[in-house]
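User: Round two. Same drill as before: sequence, then structure, for each protein.

Assistant: Same drill it is. First protein:
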Amino acid sequence: MTVITKELLDQVDVIARAAGDAIMEIYGREFSVEQKEDKSPLTEADAAAHHLIVNHLALLSLQAPIMSEEDTVDFAGADAHGRYWLVDPLDGTKEFIKRNGEFTVNIALIENGKPVLGVVYAPALDVCYTAAVGLGAFKAEGEQAPVAITVVEHQADTPWRVVGSRSHASDSMQAWLEKLGEHELVAMGSSLKLCLVAEGAADVYPRLGLTSLWDTGAAQCVVEQAGGSVIQLNGDVLSYANTKEVLNPFFLVLGKSNPFGELSALSDQL
């Protein structure tokens, strides 16, 4: 496995923040909204962040192919070491358009199907989550130094703290919550949902709707290095090995020692 250095993690952090600056320049003025073939929205901020990230990743000492949401055509697959960069230049475009601040820049390094480095930066909130195998997981707010974060264990006889999508609520999610029982629901946009579990602010994030590889790769690294897990409903860890299939299966993001079997069973027959 590639040894990830703090220097590399810091370099990717700088790239994500630079992309965030480009996004915020557009966020602060009028911008046009187009529609992609899958009916999802696209703004000039998506394109500006994409080009900046791709150009800067190409300057790093660790060279690997790049899969970006805004350019899947030119991606030919992982390199001989099983590595590739996985990028969502602007995750939460709907939140960007709504101007609620809950959007992120996601950059992950994937190796042999696993995220080994991840940076999630929310430019409107000026919050950055960084993580890498061997280094841990961290959160930085504003100008403050990064602090280590860790998941927590749900305490029995207390309501489950559940984070859910702000823009993609579903009947399946509602049915799952009814089966779960007493809970507190926090609505959040973009990959910040996974990061809330990573920092111990939520116990579980059930994703019973479609996501793509680039939506989750960076934040999954943050969750895993904070001691949590991102598990498909069949019990397997969410994987990034098959780049021909960009859609993720449904999954659960869990904190420390959460009962996967019990929680996954809630999804049966939904």
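Second protein:
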Amino acid sequence: MSQRRSPLHARAAMVVATVAAATLGTLVVPAQAETVTAVENDLNGDGEADLVVVGNQGSLAPGLWLAAGTAGGGLAGTPSNIGAAGVTGVGGSNPSPAGYNGLQVVVGHFRSGSGPNDVLLYDPAHGLGKLLYGTGDGSPLNELVGKGVLSGTFTSRTTHANATSIANAGRLYTTAAQGEPNPFPALLSVLDGALWLQPTSAQSGGFFPAEVVLADTNPAGTGNWNGWSITTALVDDMPALFARSEAGGQLYYYSPAALLSLTLGSPAAPVLVAAQGWDAAAKPVVQAADVDHDGIVDLRAVDPSGNAAAYRFDGATLTALGSHNLLTGADTAPGGTTTAPGRHPHKPEPHRH
């Protein structure tokens, strides 16, 4: 791994100083700040990790679709379109559900570091982001309730290339720098053929450009990170990361400890989870989440036909938990048995408007 890295402790000191100097007048603190922080990936406030899918893929119509999670990693009924109010796409003037087409979505506590989960949208074609504040009840998002267009954050300062994939990094940056915790999550990004860590300021949506190179060589050790995508979920505010080759279908896992080692400049080998089968054609949507609350990040994947499969992870291998068709609401057990669509007895239907 090359040493294309900026002085971590110097930047962290600046970030920590900014956090320490911030007052309630400069922080963006939501009205829900007194509420209990929602669990990771829970957008409807019921304590279970949900699945969020950008439309125009997986046989879904344009928009941003929320499939409510159930206990044990399942999903309930058919998803609701929390992007029904639309979002203004690049070059557009009016919000539309089609404005979500081609975007990436990252769920996290971006508004204040606590309370309901929010949605960070990223347009890799133009290197632009937008932060939409979560409602906490799964109701549709409003692009006027959030942060304006984020530009420059996801673009290389040397080559001007745009990041191809981004993910939630939690408190990885300030933990590595041994600074005071910053409640706003940092980001991980695939940029210029490497895996980067981006610190955040003491404001919602206040991300610094890519700052620390974690790895120049891809997980398979066969070249750089071009053609790889990442997804994370947090464990005790630290990210666990799955990386997959978009074309080759290999899937690797980096534990929070491995990512911390890389941030500190020490080597850390990822775990090979699957040698094939996780390519973007077969599984256009892959989302990390702790679906069974055991403290180990699991995976969900959506195929082109809208079948959302859940996989329990034990740190080395994945075990299929069955799938749920987002269009019909029908469940399929790991052995192939299909159950009739309908409400799960232990889970309410997703909130709809």
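The radius of gyration is 19 Å.

User: Perfect.
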